[in-house]
Amino acid sequence: MLVEPQSNTNLKKIILSLTVFFLLQTNYAYSKDLMLYGGSGHKDFLGCFNCGDNSSKSICNEYGTFGSEYSSSSIFNEYGTYGSEYSSSSPWNEYSSSNSVPVLVDKQGGFYGYFTINEYRSKAIDFADTLSDIYESANGKLDEVQEKLCASLK
Fold first, then answer.
1. CB neighbours (10 Å) of residue 97?
2. For the chain, what are the domain ranges?
3. Cα separations (Å) of 15 from 18, 27, 133?
4. Which run of H or of E encompasses 103?
5. Three-state SS at 124
6. HSE, side-chain direction, 13 A CA sphere, residue 32
7. Tens digit of pLDDT for each residue in 13-45?
8. Distance between CA atoms of 16 and 112, rounded to whole angstroms?
9. pLDDT 10s digits, 96-132
10. Nearest to 55, CA basis, from 42, 70, 65, 45
11. Structural element, H or E, at residue 114
12. Is the pLDDT of residue 141 over 90?
């Protein structure tokens, strides 16, 4: 039986979503809010990774400060410091090994890794390869990356 290209694409989306979901389930306690910090010394709060899309602090709230494609504090602003694929401070720069790449931490300061698609970066998050796959499957379109990433967090 031949699989149609559209079905194959949908299957890939499902597999990506399930992979991120299982990685998050096994590696991170959902009872902990995971936060993103970036910039020099990681002093810039960039939002909550797993707070749900209704939280004002969530990276999944597209109308909030940290999820808006227009906010300078959003990793989904393609023209901003933390969203540009060319910025050394952006998780979407596949070559950056800068210390200003966002980090994923819990409220107690527990370090979960550098939030980056650079899967070869030292101390990258465990799911950097999956994050990279999501980015690539969205052709770098950050609105689609946000949609896919946030759907996998639900």
1. 14
2. 5-153
3. 5, 18, 11
4. strand 103-106
5. strand
6. 17
7. 555 555 555 555 444 444 589 999 999 999 999
8. 20
9. 999 999 999 999 989 999 999 999 999 999 999 999 9
10. 65
11. strand 111-114
12. yes
Interhelix angle for 128-137 vs 5-27, to 10°?
150
130: tokens are 């999956």
Instruction: List phi, psi (to 5°) of 104.
Output: -105, 120
**Per-residue pLDDT at 32:** 83
Under a CB-based contact definition with an 8 Å cutoff, are residues 64 and 51 in contact?
no
SS3 46: strand
Share of the chain above pLDDT 70, in %: 80
**What distance in Å separates the CA atoms of residue 36 and residue 46, rounded to the nearest whole number?**
5
| Cα–Cα dist 148/154, whole Å | 10
The full 3-state SS of 49-104, as one line of letters, equals: CCCCCCCCCECCCCCCCCCCCCCCCCCCCCCCCCCCCCCCCCCCCCCCCCCCCCEE
CA atoms within 13 A on the CB side of 147: 9
Answer yes or no: are the C-beta atoms of 127 and 118 closer than 8 Å: no
Eight-class DSSP state of 37: E
| Number of other CB atoms surrounding residue 85 within 10 Å | 16
Largest interatomic CA distance in the chain = 55
Predicted TM-score (pTM) of this structure: 0.81
